[in-house]
Amino acid sequence: MKELKLIIKILETKDELQPAFNLRCKVFVKEQNIPKELEFDEKDNIESTIHIGCFEYNHLIGVARLIDMDKNTIHIGRVVVEKNCRKRGIGSKLILGCEEIAIKTLKLPFKIKLGAQIQAEKFYENLGYKRVNNKIYLEAGIQHIDMEKTIS
Asked: 3-class DSSP state for residue 68?
């Protein structure tokens, strides 16, 4: 298998963030039919949120956001990978990149929590995340579960 040449970095400027928001819109709003007003929220614009981009050959192919970066428990969310780039390990590299950025930013130990779409449970389990409880809930009409991982 060909080695992935990916760059994971923090997106800071409007010029960097707009393509990330466009990719989220493409995946969540167009592919998964999530209403745009649910996809974008006030957490996108607060100072303690960090937006992460995954690039292959300078092309943005994945995004995620870290929220509550001013606390001991943070959240990873809005994780997407471009449709034609899936099943190549990019999502795993993106999540691990988010964890590395959090480790560089926060004091250890801390927890990472996330609300995973139920079909992504095994993906997150393979990265060390565990289900918090047996509760399945609907978010934007899609079944989700709560998962977490402690970084120490």
From this structure: coil
Task: Read off the tokens for 18.
Answer: 């707009």
Smallest CA-to-CA distance from 123 within 99, 143, 95, 142 is with 95
Within 13 Å of residue 89, how many CA atoms lie on the same side as its CB?
7
Residues of the chain with pLDDT under 50: none
Cβ–Cβ < 8 Å for 74, 49: no
Measured CA to CA in angstroms, residue 91 lies from 2, 42, 51, 54, 61 at distances of 16, 25, 15, 9, 10
- For residue 38, what pLDDT is reported? 87
Which pLDDT value is given to residue 70? Answer: 83
Is residue 25 helix, strand or coil? helix
Token pair belonging to 149? 């991982």
Query: Would you say 64 and 79 are in contact if contact means Cβ atoms under 8 Å apart?
Result: yes
| Entry pTM | 0.92
